[in-house]
Design goal:
Helix 4 crosses helix 5 (147-155). 43% of the residues are buried. The strands form 3 sheets. Strands 3-2-4-1-10-9-11-14 form an 8-stranded antiparallel beta sheet, covered by helices on one side. The protein has a 6-stranded antiparallel beta sheet with strand order 5-6-7-8-12-13, covered by helices on one side. It starts with a strand and ends with a strand. The chain is of the alpha+beta class and 396 residues long. It has helices at 13-23, 55-63, 110-119, 131-144, 147-155, 246-250, 257-273, 292-297, 307-324, 333-336, 359-370, 385-389, and strands spanning 3-9, 31-38, 45-52, 71-77, 92-93, 99-104, 162-168, 175-180, 185-188, 192-196, 208-211, 217-221, 224-228, 238-241, 300-305, 328-332, 347-353, 374-379, 392-395. Bound molecules: glutamic acid (GLU). The site of glutamic acid has 14 residues, from strand 6.
């Protein structure tokens, strides 16, 4: 899971951004970064600082920078497209470097958009899906000279999920925000306006947060926030009063993380399916790495996993047998690898590992492939061993 934070006001932005990013660390991430607005007029530019690894690394780099910027955006990234690296970390910038964005979610049509944008002369610096947003906004800005309008325009081209915050040196102090299928909250505190993907990042500043709905936009300035719909009409957002303390807020208002995660399951399933459903509501998993014929020939499924992934597999057994009528066994990878399971070329092995590194699961994958099975990995880490060694992979 990833995090967005943004601030515009009269305080030093870098401190607020780092505090917000640290608050969201519990969600997990692989890299982080900020963009700070510095200078004025012709000298105005964005300082973009990004680091792989923990936010403390970014924090120490920022502590060496004497920045009195009062507007900026920050991000913790969990890679979905492109490995965890400094160039792939957010914020991403437009060709001219005058626009920077942070994004949570997945842009499904990024490959087409990227090709089109490159065809029109845009130069891409990262492997992410996110970067197309920076270039789309840049193109729209040439016409509109209005950041909020350009973000709105860019969103009309994007298919997928996004929580997005953008800044532009030509509009100092403005943060333009958009949301679709990825949470965004906005609040106004004593010294300025805040945006985040999780209330925990802004409860120091305010307890009254506007929870954006899909298709809603927010334009933050130091003086306040204007909310609009897709057509640009001004709207009243839904404001929620948060009375949790910090500890509860970290757990989304639940007494413990386990309960929070149980309640998050429907959303997590929904998020995982976003980008894999056709407009007609059919599932389209082209990451499967199997042709339709191969899929039709499958006559036995093993779900191999350890720990919690094993328990998730038990649910998969019910679903696969119930829907596909294919005999499915769930096995602890540590057992599977040491016995001699019946595996043929029409066997599908589904290997589940959150980290993508679980040693027993990895050994079981290798074994299954040697015996001729098709192996499909489910993991949360791009480029992990499970991802690399499976015939197909789906990232959660
Ligand atoms: N899809 C984007 C990327 O891979 C955003 C990932 C995130 O939500 O952190 O860079």
């Amino acid at each position: 899971m990833c995090g967005i934070v943004g601030y515009t006001g009269s305080d030093i932005a870098k401190n607020i951004l780092v505090t917000g990013l640290k608050r969201m660390e519990y969600r997990g991430y692989d890299s982080s970064g900020v963009a700070l607005e510095v200078g004025e007029g012709a000298a105005a530019h964005l300082d973009v600082i990004r680091r792989v690894g923990k936010v403390v690394g970014l924090e120490s780099e920022l502590s060496n920078i004497d920045s009195d910027a009062t507007c900026g955006i920050g991000h913790t990234r969990w890679a979905t497209h492109g490995k965890p690296s400094v160039v792939n970390a957010h914020p991403h910038t437009s060709c001219d470097g005058r626009i920077a964005i942070v994004h949570n979610g997945i842009i499904e049509n990024f490959a087409e958009l990227r090709e089109e944008l490159e065809g029109r002369g845009h130069h891409f610096k990262s492997e992410t899906d996110t970067e197309v947003f920076a270039h789309l906004i840049e193109e729209a800005y040439v016409e509109t000279h209005d950041l909020m309008a350009s973000v709105r325009e860019a969103c009309t081209h994007v298919v997928g999920a996004y929580g997005l915050a953008a800044v532009c040196t030509d509009e100092p102090g403005v943060i333009a925000v958009a949301r679709k299928d990825s949470p965004i909250v906005v609040g106004v505190g004593e010294t300025g306006s805040y945006v985040a993907s999780d209330v925990i990042a802004l409860i120091d500043a305010t307890r009254d947060v506007a929870v954006l709905e899909d298709g809603q936009f927010a334009k933050l300035t130091p003086a306040g926030v204007e909310y609009t719909d897709e057509a640009g009409n001004v709207i009243e957002p839904k404001v929620t009063h948060i009375d949790w303390d910090l500890d509860m807020a970290e757990k989304g208002g639940y007494p413990d993380f386990m309960l929070k995660e149980i309640h998050e399951q429907p959303r997590v399933v929904r998020d995982t399916l976003v980008g894999r459903m056709t407009p007609a509501g059919e599932l389209d998993i082209d990451e499967l790495g199997l042709s339709l014929e191969e899929l039709n020939d499958i006559d036995r499924v093993y779900v191999i996993a350890c720990g919690t992934s094993y328990h998730a597999g038990l649910i998969a057994k019910n679903l696969i047998e119930g829907w596909a009528r294919i005999p499915t066994e769930v096995e602890a990878a540590s057992e599977f690898r040491y016995r001699n399971p019946i595996i043929t070329p029409t066997t599908l092995v589904v290997a589940v590992s959150q980290s993508g590194e679980t040693a027993d699961t990895l050994a079981a994958i290798r074994d299954a492939r040697i015996k001729g099975a098709k192996v499909f990995g489910i993991t949360n880490v791009v480029g992990s061993p499970v991802a690399r060694e499976s015939d197909g992979v789906i990232y959660t």
